[in-house]
Amino acid sequence: MPPSAEVTVRAPAKINLGLSVGPPRPDGFHPVATVYQAVALYDDVTAVLREDDGEISVEISGDFADDVPTDETNLAVRAAQLLQAEYDVDEGVDLTIRKTIPVAGGMAGGSTDAAATLVACNRLWGLQLTQTELQHHAAELGSDVPFCLVGHTALGQGRGEQVTEVMSRGTFHWVFAIADGGLSTPDVYRELDRMRPLRRVEAPQVRPELMSALLSGQPGALAVALSNDLQAAALSLRPELGETLQFGLDQGALAAQISGSGPTCLFLAADSRSAVDLAVELAESGRCRMVRQAEGPVPGARILPAIVSR
Ligand code: ATP
């Protein structure tokens, strides 16, 4: 692909259908076995070439703009810096992120912005990196970033960065109750370590019934196969989320679970119609900051076709 002066990449949020967490490694990371699914809740990252200098800037718009840093701690900026340094790029980039994924919500918002930026800068700067090379850089940026590149449904091992595609049939309908405020992922892992005696913690593993449920494409089978080892820790830090989960179940959700490290609550609906009904009930209940609905699985970070205007 030839380089372009402007590229927009659409990148999805992730959920964890199963998240099994092992005891912390000597480097502090927890080994996980997780089944990710990419859902149709997207951030769009637009990258515009700066030919005259090597500066990297970022602006944020959308629902959660005020919660996102615009300095070098922004994961999208770090992704651009990484490629620029690794491949001696002289040019810079102006990034604009339109955010619809909740920040610190357990849906990998920052990670997916980083994945989108890798894809965008690869095109913008004409680097011609392969998918494998992009995956390698994604893993340097964070545990969830490689999955955000590939999307669909995948098994994540190691810190979550070793991804393998998982067979999944059909489309599932999800509803998200987005809480006020975020939860820090490291805080949730610390709480998990505090809550469980380490000597009893086994190596992480994915439940076989989760794989069968995905193959069957049946939401009823998936509902009983979901799991999240971080849920108890997230609920310990934010007990009110338990009531939100129960409310969704009372309104007909097939299953309710904390998304990743939380505090977003996710609900599996039987079909798209039930998802709409559940979303309305949740929104009217006033229990959360906002409610979103999305289908999964969807692909990972993808370049959007340029809109040609006359
Ligand atoms: P994960 O599910 O991968 O653990 P998360 O969804 O809980 O992550 P993020 O939305 O990625 O959390 O945000 C975590 C922190 O990262 C935020 O508090 C924010 O300050 C910082 N951050 C850096 N870059 C970004 C970005 N592009 N978008 C959102 N947050 C970012």
UniProtKB/TrEMBL annotation:
Keyword match Kinase: yes
EC top class, as a word: transferase
GO molecular function, one term: ATP binding
Domain GHMP kinase C-terminal: 211-286
The protein's Enzyme Commission number: 2.7.1.148
GHMP kinase N-terminal domain mapped to chain residues: 74-151
Chain sites annotated for binding ATP: 102-112
Keywords: ATP-binding, Isoprene biosynthesis, Kinase, Nucleotide-binding, Transferase
Residue ranges crossing the lipid bilayer per the database entry: none
Example GO biological process: terpenoid biosynthetic process
Pathway noted in the entry: Isoprenoid biosynthesis; isopentenyl diphosphate biosynthesis via DXP pathway; isopentenyl diphosphate from 1-deoxy-D-xylulose 5-phosphate: step 3/6
SUPFAM superfamilies: GHMP Kinase, C-terminal domain (SSF55060), Ribosomal protein S5 domain 2-like (SSF54211)
Active site: 14, 144
PANTHER family registered for this protein in UniProt: 4-DIPHOSPHOCYTIDYL-2-C-METHYL-D-ERYTHRITOL KINASE, CHLOROPLASTIC (PTHR43527)
Function (record text): Catalyzes the phosphorylation of the position 2 hydroxy group of 4-diphosphocytidyl-2C-methyl-D-erythritol.
Family: Belongs to the GHMP kinase family. IspE subfamily.
Name of the protein in its database record: 4-diphosphocytidyl-2-C-methyl-D-erythritol kinase
